[in-house]
Amino acid sequence: MICVSAPAFAASPRDGQLRGLNAAGFYGHDRRLLHTVCLLIDGREPEPIGVQPLGPDQVRFTSVHRYPGDRTYDPTVIIERVRTAGEGESVLLRNVGTVARRLHVELALATDLAGIADVKRGRTGRTVRCTTTADAPGLDWRSRTGSAHVRATGPGPSPEVTDGPEGGTLTWHRVLLRPGESWKFRLTVSGSAVPEPPGHPQAPSTPSPWSEPVVHGDRRLVALVRQGLGDLRALRLADPERLRHDGPEDQFIAAGCPWYLTLFGRDSIWSARMLLPLGTDLARGTLWALARRQGTAHDVFREEAPGRILHELRPADADHGNGLRLPSRYYGSVDATPLFVTLLVEAWHWGLPEADVDALLPYAERAMEWVEETTNRDEDGLLRYYPRPGGLRHQSWKDSEDAVRDAAGRRIEPPLALCEVQGYAYEAATGLAELLAARGRHTRAERLRTWAQALRKRFADTFWLPSPGGPAQRYVAIAVGRGLEPVSGPASNMGQLLSTGILDPDGCREVAAWLASPELNSGWGLRSRSAALPGFNPMSYHGGSVWTHDTAIAIQGLCAAGCNEEAYRLTNGLLDAASHFAYRMPELYGGDDRAPDAPAPLAYPAACRPQGWSAASGVAVLGALLGLRPYAPARTLRVGTLPAPAGDAGPMIVEVGGIRLAEGTVTVRVDPAKGVTVTSLPDGWRWYTG
User: Fold this and answer.
1) Which sign, positive or negative, has the C-alpha torsion 175, 179, 181, 186?
2) One domain for residues 378 and 472
3) What's the pLDDT tens digit per position in 599-634?
4) What is the pLDDT of residue 69?
5) Does 471 share its domain with 355?
6) What's the mean per-residue pLDDT of the chain?
7) CA-to-CA distance for 680 and 638, rounded, in angstroms?
């Protein structure tokens, strides 16, 4: 059970007892503050009977305490523990019996103050010695890398506090509870990295930077959007720097909990892109947080270069094992930089104020210069990644060690030009050209268009592979290796090309056929690798599992390309899968076939949940199904047509309010008989379908 309030979270077994095992504990800023919080009543652990999430940041564990000598099996003491990320927990004991009870209450506390990278690797550190506090009943821990503090408050006498090298205990002797009485105490848990990282993102102090939509229609989509926005509120972080000390807070979405609760270039950008129908403030904050950390120099260890956009920000350098050591500020991604440019362009389309667009434009231009310079480095003119030894081997969203395999299941090593990355680069160049032309900079805009068209032709000549007997006559290779050798084997990456513009209409239709085929469409979402290929593993990280955001991006592209039937199939599968996860979508889940004798979707064991772009996927699907295409400079909104549901499934959406355009909000209503209507448009705006 995970509860999160970035940059803090708590991970607990379902009984609520933290015993120093696995990844359980209270965390803050990538540091485990406590790994043991074990409650004993009269020397025994309570019997767990239930667990209930109370929100993204809070969970309640309920247990009971029995007395073996009683003449009934009924429990007479009920214990409720409410654990809150970033705060601590409260413990309530209630006597529901008819006899007064004197309880011996003991709480064992300990920690290793381990960093999140070590926890993920299973490297539990040695227990840190604790000391009693002088100011209030509690315990303190301190190491050269972190510190933790626990304080106990409550009515009645203070607990007896003992400390030592293996941890400490808080003990309340002979707590009297008469029939019907209750007693409650509270633990405050705090801590930090040592030394505290300067300028590191922090918890936001202002409300969420998006509107709250009102969705009526398909109950699955309603629930997915509602749960997703709740999780996104808990995943928000804020840049401590601002343009003005009295200016707006620059918020962004952390990648995911527990492993990536920080600023991630690609993940934070995609989350902001997906939420653009609810306003541009999140995009603005994300862009500024990344712009302030844009590369300015060449640094081999960081893989930094002028114009390159950050991949990952951590409080300290971290050893991830197997020779992978990453700096606190790491730039090793090939996709974050073009995605940064596209986020600015799309935010401009949605109505980001012109002053913000102008202020961010130089950063986007420097980012595009990095893209162009990197393609110039390649004799084939493609956007490739060249990892350093000891850095991430694969540097797009499929970044595991075996992320790129060919049709025979063989690992393909970098340098590689991934197909979706070429689409990102094309989309960034054409979008930036449009933005520059709108500011009268036609010469630079024309050069970008020429560059983009050349990339588009190289892509068409290089990436397509024949597929006799397949759902289409050809498919897009996942990547091109050395010597322009395409990597064979259908994979989901081609789905992210559909909305970039790099494919022609025939190419879009062929990709759509593959995405709808049983090889890639599991029935619960889009598989990352074809199920017909050797090495397919439905529970691998990138070799056959379903990624929530990948499916949502494919749905966006299918809707944009007018492939409504294929879009509906993927959407219906994704929404049905969401119902098995209580609509808190994991980062990825199993890619097993949807069949009567097959298991329901199961989360990947180490998946982040909640996770930023998974939580934002509901809004992404919502916007895709409505076909929303705003263009704020001309004050126009295009609304598409919904995919036609199969059979008697009925309309997926009836009405959506709270869609934000520039300074106003609109409501889109879908009537199966009368079509689409848009109301409450801001002054001067017009809408059309098509």
Assistant:
1) positive
2) yes
3) 899 999 999 999 999 999 999 999 999 999 999 999
4) 83
5) yes
6) 94
7) 15
- pTM score of the predicted model: 0.96
269 within 8 A of 254, measured Cβ to Cβ: no
* Residues 261 and 255 sit within 8 Å (Cβ to Cβ): yes
CA neighbor of 573 nearest in space, from 221, 216, 275, 228? 221
Q: Give the model confidence (pLDDT) of 561-604 as tens digits.
A: 999 899 999 999 999 999 999 999 999 999 999 998 888 999 99
Task: Give the CA-trace dihedral at 588, 593, 594, 599, to 10 degrees.
Answer: -70
Same domain, 156 and 255: no
Nearest of 675, 652, 661 to residue 632 by alpha carbon: 661
pLDDT in tens, 362-404: 999 999 999 999 999 888 899 999 999 999 999 999 999 999 9
Residue numbers of the domain that contains 415: 214-670
Same domain, 530 and 585: yes
User: Letter for the amino acid at 266?
Assistant: R
Helix and strand numbers, DSSP H then E, in the chain: 13, 36
Is 676 contained in some domain? no
Burial of residue 524 (CB within 10 Å: 0-12, 13-18, 19+) is buried
Tokens of 316: 């300290």
Task: Please name every residue paired with 65 in a beta bridge, in sequence order, or none if there are none.
Answer: 77
Domain presence at residue 682: no
Picking from 541, 472, 537, the residue whose alpha carbon sits closest to that of residue 510 is 472
Q: What are phi and psi of 331, to 5 degrees?
A: -115, 15
pLDDT for position 648 = 46
| DSSP tag of 260 | B
Give the rounded distance of the alpha carbon of 203 from its chain centre.
17
Residue 658 sits in a domain whose CATH number is 1.50.10.10
- Does 544 fall in a domain? yes
How confident is the model at residue 670, as a pLDDT? 83
Is residue 666 within 8 A of residue 659, CB to CB? The reply is yes
Burial class of residue 266 (count of CB atoms within 10 Å of its CB; 0-12, 13-18, 19+): buried
Q: Closest Cα to residue 496, out of 601, 398, 626, 608?
A: 398
Asked whether the beta carbons of 200 and 29 are under 8 A apart, the reply is: yes
The helix (run of H) or strand (run of E) holding residue 68 is: none
Domain-located, residue 378? yes
- What is the pLDDT at residue 645? 57
Below-70 pLDDT ranges, the chain: 642-652, 672
CATH number at residue 165: 2.70.98.40
Q: Could you give the CA distance from residue 183 to residue 193 in angstroms, rounded to a whole number?
A: 34
Which one-letter DSSP state was computed for residue 166?
T
Contact 342, 403 (CB under 8 A): no
DSSP for 616-660?
THHHHHHHHHHT-EEEGGGTEEEE--PPPPSTT---SEEEEEEEE
Question: Are residues 154 and 231 located together in one domain of the fold?
Answer: no
Residue 411 is given by DSSP the state: B
The CB-side HSE value for 330 (13 A sphere, CA atoms) comes to 27
The last residue of a domain, from among 193, 225, 253: 193
DSSP assignment string, 476-543: E-SEE-GGG-BPPS-BGGGGGGTTTS-S-HHHHHHHHHHHHSTTTB-SSSBBSB-TTSTT--TTSSSS
**Pair 100, 63 in one domain:** yes
Q: What is the DSSP letter of 335?
A: S
DSSP 308: P
